[in-house]
Amino acid sequence: MNKPLIGVVPLYDAEKESYWMLPDYMKAVEAAGGLPVMLPLTADREAIRSLAETFDGFLFTGGQDVHPDMYGEPKEPFCGEICEERDAMEKELLELAIRLDKPVFGICRGFQLINAALGGSLYQDLPTQRPDSGIVHRQPKPYDRPVHRVVIVKDSPLHRILGTEELMVNSLHHQGVKRLADRLEPLAFAEDGLIEAAHMPDRTFLLAVQWHPEYSYRADARQLRLFEEFVRHCRPVD
After folding, report:
1. For an engineered disulfide with 177, which of 15, 112, 191, 195 has Cβ 3.0 to 4.6 Å away?
2. Residue 72: how many CB atoms within 10 A of its CB?
3. Per the residue annotation, which of 108, 173, 199, 234 is the catalytic one?
4. Which of 196, 214, 228, 229 is catalytic?
5. What is the pTM (predicted TM-score) of this model?
6. For residue 11, how far is the Cα from the chain centroid?
7. With bands split at pLDDT 50, 70 and 90, how would you rate the model's confidence at 33?
8. Is 79 considered catalytic here?
9. Catalytic one of 148, 199, 212, 233
10. Is there a catalytic annotation at residue 159?
């Protein structure tokens, strides 16, 4: 059986003006049975369309903040570094993937991008806008260390994948979902009420999480199940 071809959205280094990839994303997809390929960072709409049609599924990775223009808000001073090239490419790619019903898995920024692109909004800086949270959402190294609990919606797709109603997760973000897009349903919450996972129920597979399972899947087999379920839905029909 051929391994499904997974397009992995690239990371971007503004100082070096280069795009690149962290190996953990690739290794997690490989461990789940997929063949990961880093995508080019491009604004060419025909190229993006070709990518959408060629690959069996797409992993939307972490990285810079999503520009608040995408959800109709001014950029506040506490918003972090942005990458408009990524925003534009990923929004276009997401729209095409949804239209083609190609499986999508979003991680951290990937979750935020999906939510903003579909009409939701974001907290531009959690410590500033939710100072009474009581949870540190941006941990120091090591990144595979779980730092807070998430509560998973009972009988939800995420509950069925993980087989649990609670999960300890790592946390590497300062932004988060403020208003969930209408087409998404919440799947998990942090103890401070922040939405930590969601999916699109009218697609074959579109799921996103706020934490980073690519750092945790070796120590916690349940985290690998997220990638396995994603890759399973990406398998081309013979």
Report:
1. 195
2. 9
3. 108
4. 214
5. 0.97
6. 13
7. very high
8. no
9. 212
10. no
Q: What is the CATH number of the domain that holds 104?
A: 3.40.50.880
* Token output for 26: 């690739």
Provide the token pair at 152: 């998973």
pLDDT tens for each residue of 40-75: 999 999 999 999 999 999 999 999 999 999 999 999
- Assess whether 233 carries a catalytic annotation: no
Asked if the peptide bond before residue 142 counts as cis, ω within 30 degrees of 0, the response is: yes
Tokens representing 175 are: 């932004």
Q: Going along the chain, which residue ranges are E strands?
A: 5-8, 11-13, 18-20, 35-38, 57-60, 104-107, 121-123, 148-152, 166-169, 176-179, 185-190, 195-199, 206-209
The answer for residues whose C-beta is within 8 angstroms of residue 231's C-beta and 6 or more apart is: 4, 6, 29, 32, 33, 34, 57
Domain count along the chain: 1
Q: What pLDDT score was predicted for residue 238? A: 53
- Strands (E) located in 27-147: 35-38, 57-60, 104-107, 121-123
Residue given tokens 């939800």 in the structure block = 156
Residue 79 domain boundaries: 5-234
